[in-house]
Amino acid sequence: MVGTDSDRAENPAKKSKTAAGASKPVLGYWKIRGLASAIRYQLAYSDVSFDEDVYEQGDGPDFSRAAWTDVKFDMGLAYPNLPYLKDGAYSLTESSAIHRYCARKWRPELLCHDDAEAYGRAEMAWGVVNDLKNFFTAKCYGGDGDKKALAEVALPRFSAIAKELSENEFLAGDRLCCADFALVELVELMDFVSDGEIFKAYPSINEHRDRVFALPKLKEYYEDESRCPRLPFNNKVAKINNL
């Protein structure tokens, strides 16, 4: 396990939502983008300084997961899994729970709890994006490794999202929500898989991606590769990856 400081490029005099003297939250995950990049984007947008515990899968042919499995039950986690978030004395796992926890603590407006319709749209979008992510994960790890074939079957699955974004700035209408961060990371993966065809097919998705990555704090984070390194999308065992 390697500990890294994801905020090391930040001006130390600059204030963030991590209180002075308080320990930073720690995000634990594999040395990949996977489920963690969307959380990183949300934390950056929320102006939260965070550290990372990074676990690296071994090389083939064994692709050992021992860096994580050797310690996973010694972490004090109720449901040991990656990603995890440690925030002071409290720790949690499951990416959707981490997104919502971070929103509730640092950016509650991302939950859209003050508007029933926006909340419903945000929750629907989360389910749709999560289903797409699970589809991609299954194909990248368990498929035949044919990137072109994956692009062909995946591209139509973005049509409903593209239609919504042709009429709205964000997935919850005019409100940013947690699902927007998950979507832009999934679109980054689809951009790689389709060699850019997703943006030609769905200009509204390209516009949404640019809109999200232009958000204050997130823009600076995303453009600084010392803080946001361009890691592989998937672990070493995956058959489709940007290694």
Q: Which descriptors apply to this entry?
A:
5 strands, single chain, alpha+beta, 243 residues, 9% strand, disordered N terminus, 10 helices, globular
Describe the structure.
The protein has 243 residues and is α+β, with helices and mostly antiparallel strands. 45% of the residues lie in helices and 9% in strands. The chain has a 5-stranded mixed beta sheet with strand order 1-3-2-4-5, with helices on one face. The protein is globular and about 50 Å long. 37% of the residues are buried. Residues 1-16 have low confidence and may be disordered.
Strand order of the largest sheet: 1-3-2-4-5
Which oligomeric form is depicted? single chain
Largest sheet: 5 strands, mixed
Number of helices: 10
Query: pLDDT average, as an integer?
Result: 92
- C-alpha end-to-end distance: 20 Å
The secondary structure category is alpha+beta
Strand content: 5-15%
Give the CA-based shape. Answer: globular
Q: What is the chain-wise order of helices and strands?
A: EEHEHEEHHHHHHHH
Number of strands: 5
Share in helix: 40-55%
- Which regions are unreliable across 5 or more consecutive residues at pLDDT < 50? 1-16
Q: Which value, in Å, is the CA radius of gyration?
A: 18 Å
